[in-house]
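Q: What would this chain look like folded?
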Amino acid sequence: MSALSPFQFPLIAILRGIAPDDALAHVGALAEAGYDAIEIPLNSPRWETSIGAAAQAFGQRCWIGGGTVLKIADVDTLADLGARFIVTPNTRPPVIRHAVARGLQVVAGFATATEAFDALDAGAQMLKLFPAATYGPGHLRALRAVLPATVPLFVVGGVSTDTLGGYLAAGALGAGIGGELYRPGQALAQTRAQAAAFRQAYLDHA
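A: My prediction, written as C-alpha coordinates:
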Protein backbone atom coordinates (compact mmCIF):
# COMPACT_ATOMS: atom_id res chain seq x y z
CA MET A 1 0.00 0.00 0.00
CA SER A 2 1.39 3.39 -0.95
CA ALA A 3 1.67 6.36 1.38
CA LEU A 4 -1.45 8.45 1.73
CA SER A 5 -1.53 12.16 2.47
CA PRO A 6 -4.48 14.45 3.15
CA PHE A 7 -2.86 16.96 0.79
CA GLN A 8 -3.91 16.62 -2.85
CA PHE A 9 -0.62 18.11 -4.07
CA PRO A 10 2.31 16.85 -1.96
CA LEU A 11 4.45 19.98 -1.87
CA ILE A 12 4.02 22.00 1.33
CA ALA A 13 4.54 25.70 0.61
CA ILE A 14 6.40 27.36 3.49
CA LEU A 15 6.04 31.13 3.87
CA ARG A 16 8.70 31.65 6.51
CA GLY A 17 9.01 35.23 7.70
CA ILE A 18 5.95 36.51 5.87
CA ALA A 19 4.23 39.56 7.38
CA PRO A 20 0.46 39.83 7.82
CA ASP A 21 0.22 42.56 5.18
CA ASP A 22 1.63 40.16 2.59
CA ALA A 23 0.17 36.87 3.74
CA LEU A 24 -3.18 36.77 1.95
CA ALA A 25 -1.77 37.77 -1.43
CA HIS A 26 0.95 35.10 -1.35
CA VAL A 27 -1.35 32.40 0.04
CA GLY A 28 -3.81 33.23 -2.71
CA ALA A 29 -1.11 32.99 -5.38
CA LEU A 30 -0.04 29.59 -4.08
CA ALA A 31 -3.64 28.36 -4.03
CA GLU A 32 -4.06 29.49 -7.62
CA ALA A 33 -0.89 27.59 -8.52
CA GLY A 34 -2.38 24.36 -7.17
CA TYR A 35 -0.80 24.20 -3.71
CA ASP A 36 -3.28 23.05 -1.08
CA ALA A 37 -0.90 22.76 1.93
CA ILE A 38 0.46 26.12 3.04
CA GLU A 39 2.55 26.56 6.18
CA ILE A 40 3.34 29.79 8.01
CA PRO A 41 6.12 29.15 10.56
CA LEU A 42 5.69 30.50 14.07
CA ASN A 43 8.96 32.43 13.87
CA SER A 44 7.27 34.74 11.37
CA PRO A 45 6.17 38.22 12.52
CA ARG A 46 2.66 38.28 14.04
CA TRP A 47 2.03 34.77 12.83
CA GLU A 48 -1.28 34.58 14.68
CA THR A 49 -2.69 37.34 12.48
CA SER A 50 -1.41 35.80 9.25
CA ILE A 51 -2.59 32.27 10.02
CA GLY A 52 -5.97 33.40 11.30
CA ALA A 53 -6.60 35.51 8.21
CA ALA A 54 -5.38 32.79 5.84
CA ALA A 55 -7.53 30.14 7.52
CA GLN A 56 -10.57 32.37 7.30
CA ALA A 57 -9.99 33.32 3.66
CA PHE A 58 -8.68 30.03 2.26
CA GLY A 59 -9.48 27.36 4.86
CA GLN A 60 -12.18 25.79 2.72
CA ARG A 61 -9.82 25.54 -0.25
CA CYS A 62 -6.45 24.81 1.33
CA TRP A 63 -4.87 23.23 4.36
CA ILE A 64 -3.50 26.18 6.34
CA GLY A 65 -0.99 25.20 9.02
CA GLY A 66 1.65 26.44 11.41
CA GLY A 67 5.29 25.42 11.29
CA THR A 68 8.20 25.38 13.72
CA VAL A 69 5.72 24.38 16.41
CA LEU A 70 7.50 23.66 19.70
CA LYS A 71 4.96 24.35 22.46
CA ILE A 72 1.64 22.83 23.48
CA ALA A 73 0.23 26.32 24.03
CA ASP A 74 0.96 27.17 20.40
CA VAL A 75 -0.91 24.06 19.29
CA ASP A 76 -3.98 25.34 21.12
CA THR A 77 -3.62 28.78 19.53
CA LEU A 78 -3.33 27.26 16.07
CA ALA A 79 -6.36 25.04 16.56
CA ASP A 80 -8.40 27.99 17.77
CA LEU A 81 -7.30 30.05 14.75
CA GLY A 82 -8.58 27.41 12.37
CA ALA A 83 -5.27 25.84 11.34
CA ARG A 84 -5.62 22.23 10.21
CA PHE A 85 -2.06 20.93 10.53
CA ILE A 86 1.20 21.60 12.31
CA VAL A 87 4.78 21.00 11.27
CA THR A 88 7.51 20.47 13.85
CA PRO A 89 11.27 20.78 13.35
CA ASN A 90 11.95 17.99 15.83
CA THR A 91 10.37 15.00 17.55
CA ARG A 92 8.52 16.18 20.64
CA PRO A 93 5.94 13.52 21.61
CA PRO A 94 3.92 15.69 24.07
CA VAL A 95 3.37 18.30 21.36
CA ILE A 96 2.46 15.65 18.81
CA ARG A 97 0.01 13.92 21.12
CA HIS A 98 -1.67 17.20 22.04
CA ALA A 99 -2.02 18.26 18.41
CA VAL A 100 -3.61 14.94 17.48
CA ALA A 101 -5.98 15.28 20.43
CA ARG A 102 -6.99 18.71 19.09
CA GLY A 103 -7.83 17.16 15.75
CA LEU A 104 -4.81 18.45 13.82
CA GLN A 105 -2.71 16.61 11.30
CA VAL A 106 0.95 16.47 12.32
CA VAL A 107 3.99 16.52 10.06
CA ALA A 108 6.63 15.61 12.62
CA GLY A 109 10.28 16.49 12.08
CA PHE A 110 12.85 13.70 12.49
CA ALA A 111 16.36 12.76 11.49
CA THR A 112 16.82 9.18 12.73
CA ALA A 113 14.84 5.96 12.78
CA THR A 114 14.45 6.29 16.55
CA GLU A 115 12.92 9.74 16.21
CA ALA A 116 10.66 8.62 13.37
CA PHE A 117 9.19 5.74 15.34
CA ASP A 118 8.83 7.90 18.46
CA ALA A 119 6.85 10.40 16.40
CA LEU A 120 4.64 7.67 14.97
CA ASP A 121 4.08 6.18 18.42
CA ALA A 122 2.93 9.63 19.59
CA GLY A 123 0.34 9.71 16.80
CA ALA A 124 1.99 11.72 14.02
CA GLN A 125 0.27 11.02 10.73
CA MET A 126 3.15 12.26 8.56
CA LEU A 127 6.92 12.57 8.87
CA LYS A 128 9.41 15.22 7.75
CA LEU A 129 13.10 14.48 7.26
CA PHE A 130 14.88 17.65 8.33
CA PRO A 131 17.21 19.09 7.23
CA ALA A 132 17.06 17.01 4.09
CA ALA A 133 20.07 18.58 2.41
CA THR A 134 22.28 17.51 5.32
CA TYR A 135 21.30 13.85 5.05
CA GLY A 136 20.60 13.38 1.35
CA PRO A 137 18.59 10.81 -0.64
CA GLY A 138 20.72 7.88 0.53
CA HIS A 139 19.77 8.48 4.17
CA LEU A 140 16.14 8.79 3.16
CA ARG A 141 16.25 5.57 1.14
CA ALA A 142 17.64 3.63 4.10
CA LEU A 143 14.97 5.02 6.43
CA ARG A 144 12.19 4.36 3.95
CA ALA A 145 13.15 0.69 3.98
CA VAL A 146 12.21 0.33 7.65
CA LEU A 147 9.37 2.85 8.00
CA PRO A 148 5.77 1.78 7.33
CA ALA A 149 5.00 2.14 3.63
CA THR A 150 1.71 3.87 4.41
CA VAL A 151 3.35 6.78 6.27
CA PRO A 152 3.67 9.93 4.13
CA LEU A 153 7.27 11.12 4.26
CA PHE A 154 8.27 14.64 3.27
CA VAL A 155 11.74 16.14 2.91
CA VAL A 156 12.38 19.70 4.07
CA GLY A 157 15.44 21.90 4.20
CA GLY A 158 17.48 22.85 1.17
CA VAL A 159 15.34 21.02 -1.39
CA SER A 160 15.64 22.63 -4.82
CA THR A 161 13.99 22.05 -8.18
CA ASP A 162 17.15 20.19 -9.20
CA THR A 163 17.26 17.87 -6.18
CA LEU A 164 13.54 17.23 -5.69
CA GLY A 165 13.45 14.31 -8.11
CA GLY A 166 16.23 12.48 -6.29
CA TYR A 167 14.33 12.59 -3.02
CA LEU A 168 11.13 11.43 -4.68
CA ALA A 169 13.02 8.53 -6.25
CA ALA A 170 14.44 7.64 -2.83
CA GLY A 171 10.98 7.28 -1.32
CA ALA A 172 9.72 10.74 -0.37
CA LEU A 173 6.06 11.40 -1.07
CA GLY A 174 6.73 15.10 -1.37
CA ALA A 175 8.62 18.03 0.09
CA GLY A 176 8.30 21.19 2.08
CA ILE A 177 9.60 24.15 0.09
CA GLY A 178 10.82 27.08 2.17
CA GLY A 179 13.55 29.55 1.29
CA GLU A 180 13.70 28.22 -2.26
CA LEU A 181 10.06 29.30 -2.68
CA TYR A 182 9.68 32.42 -0.58
CA ARG A 183 11.88 34.94 1.19
CA PRO A 184 10.47 37.81 3.25
CA GLY A 185 9.57 40.83 1.20
CA GLN A 186 9.86 39.21 -2.21
CA ALA A 187 7.51 40.23 -4.99
CA LEU A 188 4.34 38.29 -5.62
CA ALA A 189 5.54 37.54 -9.15
CA GLN A 190 8.60 35.78 -7.72
CA THR A 191 6.43 33.58 -5.50
CA ARG A 192 4.32 32.66 -8.52
CA ALA A 193 7.39 31.86 -10.61
CA GLN A 194 9.03 29.72 -7.93
CA ALA A 195 5.76 27.91 -7.21
CA ALA A 196 5.36 27.10 -10.89
CA ALA A 197 8.95 25.86 -11.15
CA PHE A 198 8.59 23.49 -8.20
CA ARG A 199 5.23 22.24 -9.42
CA GLN A 200 6.76 21.44 -12.80
CA ALA A 201 9.74 19.74 -11.17
CA TYR A 202 7.36 17.50 -9.23
CA LEU A 203 5.22 16.73 -12.27
CA ASP A 204 8.29 15.94 -14.35
CA HIS A 205 9.23 13.23 -11.89
CA ALA A 206 5.70 11.97 -11.22
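The longest helix spans residues 188-205.
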